[in-house]
Amino acid sequence: MKVMKLGLVITLVLAAVLAGCASDSADQGAESEAAIAAAAPPAQPAGPVKETEAEPAPEAVYPQTFTDEMGHGVILNEAPTKVFAPYMEDSLVVLGVKPVGQWSNKGVPQEYLQDQLSGVPLVDFTGGNLPSPEVVMAMQPDLIVLHNAFYAENGVYEKYSKIAPTYVFKNAAGNLESSVPALAGLLGKPQAAAKGLEEYRQKADEAKIALAPHMEGKKALIIRFNSRGMFLMGGVYGGFVLAEELGIAKSNFVATENSVELSLELLPQIDADYIFLANDRANTGETFYKELTESSIWKSIPAVQAGHVYDVDDRYWLGGGLVAYSKVIDDCLEILVP
Fold this sequence. Notes:
By secondary structure, the protein is α/β, with parallel strands linked by helices. The protein has 13 helices and 14 strands. Strands 9, 10, 11, 12, 13 and 14 form a six-stranded mixed beta sheet that branches. The protein has a three-stranded parallel beta sheet with strand order 3-7-8, with no helix packed on it. The protein has a three-stranded mixed beta sheet with strand order 5-4-6, with no helix packed on it. Helix 5 (156-160) links the parallel strand 7 and strand 8. It is globular and about 60 Å long. The two termini are 32 Å apart.
């Protein structure tokens, strides 16, 4: 994408949303690795932030008709106040909106957001199973937002849309610079989206510059552990931040893949200079974590011998949102810049 003024980009996106056209752009934990791979964000090289004043975003006017990314028409007669947008709580926090219920897996919510979501009831998505229409109806939402197309399958959209207007993203985490303004358009919060994106973009660009002299010619890799095994993470979640936002080269293992299952036999081929370990605690990855880190083969890897292996917080390294991405950037700066 050619470098454009951030304010102009956001204004154009918001204008498209308000005209009723959604932009064409993952759940963690219990969903399959295939679903994770399908949720790959497109590469979005970041340009430098220019010292220009952001153009004011237009005020929302209701009623409005939107078209979601699956082609469904969504009519809102007024700005929603009771929103259910599971696994989009990160973006809701950026917009200053508290939902009527929040995503959880085995009773564990997105813990890095709890300072701002205190008191919001947990809604169970264990095993990738969505809550029943009765559970959703009890929350009395006036807008339902599904963060990826998987959530709308098997008749879920048809059932939920009878409860409240329902907007479906193909993959909201895959392109935050599109999905955050789109969500803001639904909620009448364009200024909050513009501010959140501008602050994040400035932070990411400054971090990329700070990391560049330390990471030139170096590669980084994320290893994720959960109940199913060990996986090398490519361009999703924290991997997206490392490669696309911070410009850190990927390992050859994930140069074109978003998720690759790891076995001990593959360890000697790991080419990363820095390795980040994300133990998916909600899915009991401890067994595989110990199997890896106690292996003699693991201890012979150059990155391990150099002391360049770091345990990171899976709660946001495996999350998709501006708050999560900002926390990953903070960790990278703390770890990689002497």
